[in-house]
Specification:
Elements lengths: L2 H28 L4 H4 L12 H31 L4 H29 L1
Length: 115
């Protein structure tokens, strides 16, 4: 497969990482819940039992997800276009997938606890 499709995916992951950081910032600053990373599409946002508790629970996790996504995207692009760093690339890929699964489980737990 062509490197251009992988580069597109890397740029997408990088952009999603920045959007995740923005979502975490908005959650922490205003208590604004952005549906993309935090809740399921059909969730009624007004049914949150404890908004401040939800903010305190989810914002650090979302910051971590965003940071890992950005680092993964950058490492992957560097690996493709600058210098081959395959060991770091595979380590970051494993970390990214692990954090993604962990974040999904934490989101489900938060939905049960706060909604």
């Amino acid at each position: 497969m062509d490197n251009s499709i992988f580069s597109l995916i890397d740029i997408l992951v990088l952009g999603c990482g920045f959007y995740a950081l923005y979502s975490a910032y908005m959650l922490q600053k205003d208590g604004t819940i952005i549906r993309t990373f935090l809740v399921q599409k059909d969730t009624d946002l007004t049914s949150c039992k404890d908004l401040q508790g939800y903010v305190n629970y989810m914002s650090p996790k979302l910051y971590m997800l965003g940071t890992v996504m950005i680092i993964n995207g950058l490492v992957s692009l560097i690996n493709t276009y600058v210098v081959t760093i395959e060991t770091l690339f595979w380590v970051m890929m494993a970390v990214f997938l692990g954090v993604l699964v962990w974040y999904g489980l934490q989101t489900r737990k938060a939905m049960e606890k706060f909604f």
